[in-house]
Amino acid sequence: LLFLWSIIVSIFGIGGLLGSSGSRYLTVRFGKKKSLLCNNVLMIVAASIMGCSQIAQSFEMILIGRFMCGVSAGLCVPLHHQYVGEISPKKLRGFANSTSSFFWSLGKAIGQISGQRELLGSQARWPMLMASCGIPALVQLVTLPFFPESPPYLLMHKGDQEGCKKAIRQLWGEGQHQAEIDDIMKEKATMKNTKILSVLELVKEPAFRWQLYMIVILTATIQLCGINAV
């Protein structure tokens, strides 16, 4: 049982690795908005499977649901950063990008509090706790269709200049936004001359070796600083 529950806990991270690895392909192929909408559907399905596991008397459903949750979370982090950063005006872009870390921490805190035995952590209510991850996904699934696609995606990948201008006006209001459009065009021109590296190529590239070492060390020491215990 200990081995089984260890797999159920850790498979979330495996799903997260797979989800984050596939985020680039999805954003280029379908765009940020559509990718987020599909990701919400995946999370709702995962929440439903885990919520029904007790009725079905199936621990396999918890395992599958946790894996799907991990894939969804792995997709969500880069998608959120990219979409929120690209639809925000320049002066609010840094603040908007920081919301991911804030809500990630807030979600963990709410989960810890909700998991107390006095609330949803009891023997009768734990399926509700596991299914609760579908609530934010459902809220975003309902509200996101009212938002436009990312302006840089429309211009850089679709070549839709009119659609880009319409999205910018919807997001930032009427006014002169030619400077922002020019910045996107400059970025598009820069990307044409820049080779996109795969993960394996990035690891092998000598020019990025020390930056990679620093990121690995920082990420590892974060796990040892006691933040999980807090």
Automatic annotation (TrEMBL):
Topology in the lipid bilayer: Multi-pass membrane protein
tRNA processing found in the keyword field: no
Chief localization: membrane
Keywords attached to this entry: Membrane, Transmembrane, Transmembrane helix
Record domain Major facilitator superfamily (MFS) profile: where: 1-230
Gene Ontology annotations of biological process type: D-glucose import; dehydroascorbic acid transport
Stretches that traverse the bilayer: 6-25, 37-56
Compartments, record wording: Membrane
GO molecular function, one term: D-glucose transmembrane transporter activity
Recorded GO CC terms: plasma membrane
SUPFAM superfamilies given in the database record: MFS general substrate transporter
Protein name: GTR5 protein
Provenance organism: Gymnorhina tibicen (Australian magpie)
